[in-house]
Protein: 4-phosphoerythronate dehydrogenase (FAD-dependent)
Organism: Acidiphilium cryptum
Amino acid sequence: HGLPWLGWHRRYSRLMINLLDHLAAALGPGGVIIAPEDIAPFGTDWRGLVSNMPRAVLRPRDTAGVAAALRLCAAAGVPVVPQGGNTSMVAGAVPSRDGAELVLSLSRMNAVRAIDAAGLTMEVEAGVTLRAAQDAARDAGALLPLSIGSEGSAQIGGVISTNAGGNNTLRFGNARDLVLGLEVVLADGTIWNGLRRLRKDNTGYALRQLFAGAEGTLGIVTAAVLRLARAPRQRQTCFCAIPSVEAALDLFARFRDEDEAALYAFEYISGAAMAVNQSYMPDFRLPLETASPHYVLLELATTRRRDPLRETMEAVLADALEAGVITDAAIAESEAQRAAFWAIREHLSESQRRAGASVKNDVSVPVAAVPSLLARAAAMLGARHPGARMVAFGHIGDGNIHLNALQPEDGDAAAFAARGEDLMEDVNAIVMELGGSFSAEHGIGQIKTHAFGQLRSAAEREIMHRIRAALDPAATLNPGKLF
Ligand code: 2HG
Ligand code: ZN
């Protein structure tokens, strides 16, 4: 067995050629890609912040293939970067050094292995996209209650490894809360099959929780058993104009007070974020008569057959309107309209990407502190980063705001980006004072490592280092991330 490309790549050392030859033999046809034009997309992150080409891309078809690949790479001491849909907001799934690492793509492991609609679980492979998993659950009459803007591309392995959050965290928790069982391959090729589908399994360390959110630094997730929910029988979705951030929290409290279990999503969009959308979203149409300084998109849902959900929605809105907590509202009258409301929310990230360079601050604070966070951040930006536009939106019901700063209009993108680290530090100082987190749902990747080193205690980092050293002593799994 020999590789046809042997000889055309002088940059490959003898060791690397040997390794790639063994990997090609282990992974079979299509299992190793090295042509520069084919590997290029695997080296650049979604935001275009980092571009480091891998030496090669590995595409195993099954768990045994992942194990074989990691065994060979460990023996050669070559680092491996696991990659799913490559939608990380913190460059967590691309190499940290140019030309020195291998990317291991989970894309070919894309089987939905089993769905238990009565037991409300599903077993999926790591390369299944979140949307494909949602669709499979829905076809079986259930709900996979995790929804994020990138769900069409994001894959289950990455969703779990980064403990993704999104729009239904409020009601169902983060990705880790949906993980009942996991299958993981360690750096040395050891396979841990923990694909149990039990609601109760109290047998020592919760290993599945250790790997969730570990950003691929402890092992590669190859399959998972996810907890499902019953499919809602009714939904009511509403777009509201609100006069202030305080009013958004007032509205949140009203809905929670009325029917907490029915509150599936409660999202905030600032007027500035909406304006960016208006400029960059194709076919943008505001669902309300007039523009507002703030908006909320909220969704109620219920599995109950006889539940006056629409009446609940209308009654709470009427009271809120009367109290001046909202100034306008539109309730979706069809599935198409509901989709249109959500499209506006889910396009914010893409619109902002098109608008130029930005510094993303995915932060959280106790929910009651959100108004103070936004006010203090706006004042700080005005004083210390004049021209930077604050484009805030996010999961306000969780206290998680994407407090993003966009480069000045007609400003210089490179000059703005050069001050990005300072801006992030200034925002994080406010966040820490309010008892918050500098990364609420996007993780650390290679963009927030500096903040992680500065803002987490020595003890906390030391615990993580020791866990990492125990499972991956040579630190060959996703190097340059987290630490
Ligand atoms: C969202 O909530 C994502 O849309 C992306 O977490 C946030 O682009 C962002 O900053
Ligand atoms: Zn988000």
